[in-house]
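## Example record

The block below lists the input lines for one assembly entry, exactly as stored, with component labels intact.
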Amino acid sequence: MSRLAYLKRIGLTGGILLVLALIPLTGVPAYQFYVLERGLQNVLVVLSLVILLGYTGQLSLGQAGLVAVGAYTYGILCVNYGLSPWLGLVAAPLAAGLVGVVVGFPSFKLKGPFLAVNTLAFSEIVRILILNNEKVTGGPFGLNRIPAIATGLPLYYFMLVVAFLAAVATLRLSRSHIGLALKAIREDEVAAEAMGVNVRNYKLLAFVISSALAGVSGVFFANMAGYLNPDSFTFNESSTYLLMVVLGGMDNVAGGILSSLAVTSLPEALRFMSRSRMVVYSLILLLVLRYTNVLNLAYLKRMMRRRHRTPCASTAEQDQVNP
Amino acid sequence: MGFEAILQILIQGLNMGLIYALAALGISLIWNATGLFNFAQGDLLTVGGYVMLSTFSHWALPYPFAFLFTCGVMGLAGYLLSQGYFFPMFSQGLHPDIIVIGTIALTVLVQNGILLLWGPQAQRFSAPFGDSPVHVGQVILMPYYLWNIAIVVVLVGLLQVFFKKSILGIAMRAVAQRPVTASLMGVRVNHLVALTFLLATGLAAVGGILIAPVIPLIPEMGGLVALKAFAAVLIGGLGSFAGALIGGAIVGIAEVVFATLVVSTYKDVFIFAILIAFLLLRPRGIFSAEISEKV
Amino acid sequence: MKRCKWLLELSLSVFFAGLTFVGCQSNQPKSIKIVHLAPLTGSASSYGSFGVNAAKMAVEEINSKGGVKLPDGRQLKIEYTEVDETSNSAGAIEGTKKAISLDPLVILGPNRSGGVLAAEKLWKDAKIPALTDATSAQTTRLGNPYTFRMQISSEYWIPLLVKTGIEKYNVKRPAVIYGLNDYSKANWVATEPAMAKFNLKPVIVQTFNDNDQDFSAQLLAIKKSGADSIFLYGYTPEVGKITRQRSELGMKNIPIFSERAASVPSVFDLAGKENYEGMVTTTTMSQGDPDPKIQEFIKKYDAKYHEAFSASHVIHYDSVYIVADLVSKVGLDREKIRQELAKLDYQGAMGHYVADKEGNLVHHMRTQVWKDNQWVMLMSENYPVER
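Predicted structure tokens for the full assembly:
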């Protein structure tokens, strides 16, 4: 995108985050503030998926596992080893990135649902390992009394700053030659390879970056709750992150931020429905997904399959496995 | 370990494996016809179980009638899902990843819908031939083991005949291989896609009916069965019916064997490790898909 | 066209953000606010509704008599709200935050130990007393003066269960199988020393994961070990399935000793009549207890809700009465209520509640066995109150 478009997007993202920065100053009640905070914490994971799915076209159902790695690395280092929370903040994305290398390794030959199931399997393995190693992770009792970098309003603003930096970095990435390579991979791997893009390495890079981002999100989760339990990092969470990034427009940073806030606050907003709120929540998601193209034609054009004239997904799509 | 003990373990494994196989069959069916990986297959299976709960247990309809009714209702649901939701997304040319995410959104809807309609309590209805075990020597069998195997065998047989011999089946295979050519030959592609979904949800219904006496029906059951079903279908070969059966059997038996010989807490990790190994070394699975050709 | 999507997203966000503001503080007449964090969904949901029903019954009884008379002469009614804590820790944190935002006098729940561990800091900071349900010993040992327990810690309950097994069933070779969750693991942790006190050791210990569906491997191993009893700790679906599957694998005659979660009617449905026969569980109150007050409560509950319930999950009926009683003594001051709770000595419908130094309020324990379609009380003990 052009420099002007780039600056416009940064401006838009900054504007959204500025609004978020001002909201607490208007005297928001504690519970609503908490929902807002959760939405903000999810933004980092959504950004990670913008890079992984939006730019590189790699479908991951395992982001929850990477958030868990980040959160637990931070928690374990701080609680069991008494490390400073700032060190934990640095160590967590490193650990998550490392795990991301392992998770992303099979991506050189897997696509679509194959890759998705692969990431899901890794995420579940992470969760089960956390659950069954009580001495280190607290197991089903969880990790309690985790020291925080900050709490309350200072934490919120810290998260805002980090989110803004991450958003700018993601946008910058989109403009860079790395971003170009990633998008080339998304569009057509074979052509990208032919044009000299090392598909294997760039895919790995996408996984590492997105895992590190998810890891930072995990640190914030640990800071907000002060308590960690493996039941917060399941397939349900991974699906929700995916839904957020798709509703935001896949490769759209500002859209991702907005949809993270919207989807996070939606179940809370519907609490007055008590019994049927989750059904309404999922119906809304399904409908927006179904009519997502109606809302954004430019996005649709970009997302059309080149051989889309057939009514079903083309047979080329069945060639999911790169030999 | 004695022979009977080994046999007992194999039987237990096969019992669960059948269920995974049924879910895997449904996934393969839809995959073949549309190139879509249905992440909601496990939840559709759960709905089948719950519908049967209502018809057989709550309304006390006789078993065969309830069975057919459940399959019919689920089939209709699949048809409507296809026509109303998925096929329009296909024809708009939406990115396949988005449609797949649509199936994931569907899992959320189904799980919460079940919660709303049937409540959070774990429920069960009794098996068709009673719940008392039968002793054959040292080995203990439940009467529904044979019933389940019989149903699955008959089902797969019918499917094979359908696809190889009947006009509709041949048309479906044509659509799977060459959609453009098929439509040029006069095949109504959208109807066949709907038919595929109908068959797949019908299969899910059977799976749900067979599984409910075995494991407690809870709204989240779909997600749990789904994971193993994904492993089964990918190990066995996505798109292959034989693969779905073999994959299901492998996952079911490997689970129990590992839990017996090593430790039960990590049996899921074991299955996922096998899955990842297959994805790395032989992604096509054991039986590479016969129906879809690689372009 | 891109703008359309922006606008839609933006407006959706604002709309939802705005909706969350709805339903918060509104001008309500003063009342005695009780918020109940109950597991209405999730793995503990099979008994979440019992607690809510029981509490609601108490609230209605009190309100129908005009409410509670405060020391300053006002007569106020109880305002009761239930919040779903979804049976997991994240839900407990969110539910607690939601509960705190409703500005209650007292919180009932949460149900699971993991939930209590996760959320206890919140009600401590908010200075709201919480009458929690969890049974693992550590929840009242965190130095939180606002945490009270309306249940029995597994540390005391399990020894009674073991004692019942030995004295009434002549258990010599117990097997233990437990789920890998906070509730069940805490029960296991209490089992080993409890058995050691009676010179007993488990002949085999097996574990399972929540949401496991097949337990053949574990049950066959138990069968092989020649155990004469099974101590089983888990949540409803797993306990039901294991109870059934042990019969399927030829172990119908081996009695099961379990904890309160096993007395839920849902487990009976899952396990099947023949397989559930003879189930021994711990409980705070037994339907087989001839005490007239307890029988009266059972009649009232049945008349109102027409459903079977698990006896140890309806204790919040008495919680509500306790709160009402304390309010009538000290008014609407949270700190005073907390102090009163710390030295509680109250006779309720289901038992006598005395506070010890950790904040445990319930000391009367029972074990019961399901025989011929009803619960029969087996043993009854009170564990000592350490002030």
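Chain C is about 45% helix and 20% strand. Confidence is low (pLDDT under 50) at residues 23-28 of chain C.
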